[in-house]
Amino acid sequence: RERFDRAERALREAVAGLDAARERRTELARLSRRVADEVRGLGPVREEYERVARLAGLTAGTSADNARKMRLESYVLAARLEQVAAAATARLQRMSSGRYQLVHSDARTGGRRAGLGLHVIDAWTGRERDTATLSGGETFFASLALALGLADVVTDEAGGVRLDTLFIDEGFGSLDDQTLDEVLDVLDSLRERDRSVGIVSHVADLRRRIPAQLEVVKERHGSAVRLRSGADGLSD
User: Fold this and answer.
1) Which of 138-170 are b and which e, b meaning 16 or more Cβ less than 10 Å from the residue's Cβ?
2) pLDDT per residue over 57-115, tens digit each?
3) Are 66 and 114 in contact (CB under 8 A)?
4) Coil, strand, or helix at residue 195?
5) What is residue 200's three-state secondary structure?
6) What CA–CA distance (Å, rounded) separates 86 from 71?
7) C-alpha to C-alpha distance for 92 and 82, rounded to whole angstroms
8) How confident is the model at residue 231 (pLDDT cuts 50, 70, 90)?
9) Are the C-beta atoms of residues 124 and 155 closer than 8 Å to each other?
10) What is the rounded distance in angstroms from the CA atom of residue 179 to the CA atom of residue 97?
């Protein structure tokens, strides 16, 4: 009798376990169908994600499809830099006696991102090279030409707003006499177009070319500013 009771309890437990397993199987089947539906629903979302991720990689310059590794903002600025370089070249050729032109370069150098590079075309050699190869004086007047070119582009696109005043701080001491004359001729042409040009410099040779000067003089109790006219007259 005792053996029969144990067998009966074991049977009831087995039946209960079978019922529980069937319920779990039914629930798992339901969950499986739900997961399958969710996966199918994720298809369009995944496609949209892949499209957005690809665009993000392209605009950030990290995508393998972006051979130049150029960011979107660099791409937009590069178009404007081409305009500035063209405007600057008109000044630079005059300052360099026709030797140099500035051109935009989107080449990659030293593993850096491409997009906002500048090269010069040297008429003496017929070759294009990096602006880093320019001498100190050449770098100065190339930078000056760029500043003037930028002012021209901004003026042309600012709805008639003019940049009437330009200040240049130092750099003239690196120029030889001929180049200094050519640079000052360009600056004189700006004054003829009703622009004001201010030069901050310690170069004594500039005094003979600049008619109106503000001279800062060190004194015992501080500095004084004196106005010097073209006739070398001084006034405090």
Assistant:
1) bebbbbbbbbbbbbbbebeeeeeeeeeebebee
2) 888 878 887 777 778 888 888 888 899 999 999 989 988 889 999 998 877 665 555 66
3) no
4) coil
5) strand
6) 23
7) 15
8) very low
9) no
10) 8
